[in-house]
């Protein structure tokens, strides 16, 4: 691959869509100037379990400007689940307002459509519901533990014999770790403008995975996929909460059919605590056994979390524990408790972000018990084979991440003994943790149209990709720039429309590798097709402009598809990383702060160091949030979330984040894909919480096994 310009792959260029965003020109879902649009507002239940006995809509309906009040009584019949407790996934149906049953506090029980947003909001409060409340709602995790069951699509796993491995151990760690419920809260609220025209549904909707989401909508309304179009040109953050079709999209679509006008529905910040996914509470029991020399003999990771009473979602907390270390005896279990809360759903690095907290804290505890350096202990148990899959890793710079991070961080100056590094009233601590995240590249198509109208040639690329703030626009433009040999200014990226060629969307850290390889394939096809027409050898170097001219063309288009190779399938493809944190803890008040962090990643070829850096510091910030303050709390009697706004659901701010060093190790993994790219969106949050908790132990001598670590826990 040859870089023909300064804007190609690997260059730290500014975001190509940055200007549109900062000038307010970028259109998010609710900003499309759809004519005649009216406004919908969801109504939330005020009980956690029971049924609706009666509904009085008269006052709302009599309010001037109200067009329709929809409840289960007059709602369109939608496709409903045929099986009990189906898994929640981006392409799964999202029925709503189909029965009088209430499954959790805040569940949608109605939808008001009005001429203005304000009237809709007001009218929503005028609809009166009478409920028959069941008093046995499952809203307390501890009290409902006996109901824990093995999920249908269980990711339980074992190799060797865990009890045998534990009995061979000289030293054991057996501890339980918990992580709090969290909510995603992207800056852009969930929003949709839905409209029907001749049996066809168009939804301007804030979504991450357009093709899967089209499937979900089509199946919910039982119409062909061709009759559904989703447009998500710009998405103001997702973090997993926009992977699937949430119910406001379905209600707005249904309402649009009833009032025969486009309907806009914006989920309020308060509703984002109950009507979109969230990260569930996890209780993780770790059992680790090791020989005196540090060799692991056993590693088991059992998780209990919760799902709703209608659908299953299971975050694979044990995923990291089955592949990160060289241990013969391994056991992973996941159990779910059905609770009267909405179905939890993927939140940035679902499984790894939470699971690595338990694993990497337990590894730190073991290192202390063994009297071994935590880095040496991890290095001793390194493996170049994924033992859970019996496949070699396509590349694994795990030890290098730890070693280079240690050097950059100044690990050798760390004091091993807790409470021995002080500065006045501050206890200073240093912690380390290791990270890994799957790099699941998927089948992706793109179309490229090149044009020559005097001057330099231009290229337009189309794909149904999304940019959830990650920089998809920019890296796709850079890929086209690289492979067509034109400047990035000459590239026009059109994404976020289901009418464009299919991609897997933005999720699971597969976006960058998938989008860019799809774009690459389309560009390569343009060039080889034009060369073929001239009987030119593939190796012949001709500019794209000359290829058009010599073919007597001013415009040419080609599509391309990239998908995982056989080599990819024979390997385990992961990104790896290491986190180092220094904390200062006030020994009297327990107030603590992150003083500095070093993050090292080996994530394949970095497409744009600037956007990649943004991904990692965003991940580090969310990881720090898990430890500093983030927790969604449930009112113990009614079962509603009492954290209702960003004033009481605390997220880290700049002052919390101190100095951050981000290092990408040079890596170009051609087994992963032709461009050598792995994912980074989720690597950045993985194991951050453990490095902070381990630093807090090093500072204070207190093992904090329950997140968040609020100051009162430290005194
Ligand atoms: Mo991610 S949690 O797949 O957006």
UniProtKB/TrEMBL annotation:
Chain ranges of the Aldehyde oxidase/xanthine dehydrogenase a/b hammerhead domain: 23-135
Q: Which UniProt keywords apply?
A: Molybdenum, Oxidoreductase
User: SUPFAM superfamilies attached here?
Assistant: CO dehydrogenase molybdoprotein N-domain-like, Molybdenum cofactor-binding domain
The UniProt record lists the keyword Glycosyltransferase: no
Recorded hits in SMART domains, A to Z, give: Ald_Xan_dh_C
Tell me any Pfam family this protein matches.
MoCoBD_1
**PANTHER family in the record, alphabetically?**
ALDEHYDE OXIDASE 1-RELATED, XANTHINE DEHYDROGENASE
Q: What is this protein called?
A: Oxidoreductase
Q: Which organism is it from?
A: Christiangramia forsetii
């Amino acid at each position: 691959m040859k870089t023909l310009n300064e804007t190609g792959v690997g260059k730290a260029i500014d975001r190509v869509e940055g200007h549109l965003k900062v000038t307010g020109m970028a259109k998010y879902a609710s900003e499309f100037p759809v004519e005649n649009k009216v406004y919908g507002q969801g109504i939330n239940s005020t009980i956690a379990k029971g049924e609706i006995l009666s509904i009085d809509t008269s006052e709302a309906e009599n309010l001037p400007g109200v067009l329709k009040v929809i409840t289960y009584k007059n709602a369109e019949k939608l496709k409903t689940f045929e099986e009990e407790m189906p898994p929640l996934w981006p392409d799964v149906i999202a029925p709503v307002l189909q029965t009088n049953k209430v499954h959790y506090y805040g569940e949608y029980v109605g939808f008001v459509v009005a001429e203005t947003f304000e009237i809709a909001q007001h009218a929503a409060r005028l609809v009166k519901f009478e409920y028959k409340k069941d008093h046995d709602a499952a809203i307390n995790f501890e009290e409902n533990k006996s109901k824990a069951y093995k999920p249908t699509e269980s990711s339980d796993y074992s190799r060797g014999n865990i009890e045998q491995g534990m009995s061979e151990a000289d030293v054991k760690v057996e501890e339980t770790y918990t992580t709090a419920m969290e909510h995603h809260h992207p800056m852009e609220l969930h929003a949709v403008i839905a409209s029907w025209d001749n049996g066809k549904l168009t939804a301007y909707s804030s979504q991450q995975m357009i093709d899967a989401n089209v499937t979900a909508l089509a199946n919910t309304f039982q119409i062909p996929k061709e009759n559904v179009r989703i447009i998500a040109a710009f998405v103001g953050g997702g973090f997993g909460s926009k992977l699937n079709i949430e119910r406001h999209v379905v209600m707005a679509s249904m309402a649009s059919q009833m009032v025969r006008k486009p309907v806009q529905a914006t989920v309020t910040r308060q509703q984002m605590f109950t009507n979109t996914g969230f990260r569930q509470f996890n209780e993780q029991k770790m059992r680790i056994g090791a020989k005196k020399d540090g060799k692991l003999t056993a590693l088991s990771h059992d998780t209990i979390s919760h799902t709703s009473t209608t659908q299953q979602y299971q975050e694979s907390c044990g995923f990291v524990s089955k592949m990160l270390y060289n241990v013969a005896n391994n056991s992973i279990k996941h159990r779910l408790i059905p609770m009267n809360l909405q179905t939890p759903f993927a939140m940035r690095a679902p499984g790894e972000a939470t699971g690595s907290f338990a694993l990497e804290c337990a590894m730190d505890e073991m290192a202390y018990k063994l009297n071994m350096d935590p880095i040496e202990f991890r290095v001793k148990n390194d493996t170049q084979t994924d033992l859970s899959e019996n496949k070699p890793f396509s590349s694994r710079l795990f030890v290098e991440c730890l070693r280079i991070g240690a050097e950059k961080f100044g690990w050798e100056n760390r004091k091993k003994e807790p409470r021995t590094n002080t500065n006045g009233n501050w206890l200073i601590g240093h912690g380390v943790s290791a990270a890994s995240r799957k790099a699941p590249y998927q089948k992706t198509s793109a179309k490229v149209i090149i044009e020559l109208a005097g001057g330099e040639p231009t290229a337009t690329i189309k794909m149904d990709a999304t940019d959830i703030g990650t920089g998809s626009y920019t890296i796709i433009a850079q890929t086209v720039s690289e492979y067509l040999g034109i400047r990035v200014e000459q590239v026009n990226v059109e994404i976020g429309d289901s009418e464009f060629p299919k991609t897997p969307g933005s999720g699971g850290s597969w976006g960058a590798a998938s989008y860019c390889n799809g774009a690459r394939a389309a560009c390569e096809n343009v060039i080889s097709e034009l060369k073929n027409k001239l009987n030119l050898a593939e190796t012949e170097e001709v500019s794209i402009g000359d290829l058009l001219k010599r073919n007597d063309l001013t415009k040419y288009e080609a599509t391309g598809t990239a998908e995982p190779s056989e080599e990819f399938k024979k390997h385990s493809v992961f990104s790896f990383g290491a986190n180092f944190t220094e904390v200062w803890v006030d020994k009297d008040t327990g107030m603590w702060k992150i003083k500095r962090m070093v993050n090292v990643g080996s994530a394949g070829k970095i497409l744009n160091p600037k956007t990649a850096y943004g991904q990692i510091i965003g991940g580090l910030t969310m990881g720090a949030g898990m430890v500093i303050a983030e927790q969604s709390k449930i009112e113990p009697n009614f079962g509603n979330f009492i954290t209702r706004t960003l004033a009481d659901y605390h997220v880290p701010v700049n002052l919390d984040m101190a100095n951050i060093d981000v290092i990408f190790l040079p890596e170009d993994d051609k087994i992963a894909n032709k461009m050598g790219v792995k994912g980074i969106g989720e690597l950045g949050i993985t194991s951050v919480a453990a490095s902070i908790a381990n630093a807090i132990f090093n500072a204070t001598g207190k093992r904090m096994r329950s997140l968040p670590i609020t100051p009162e826990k430290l005194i």
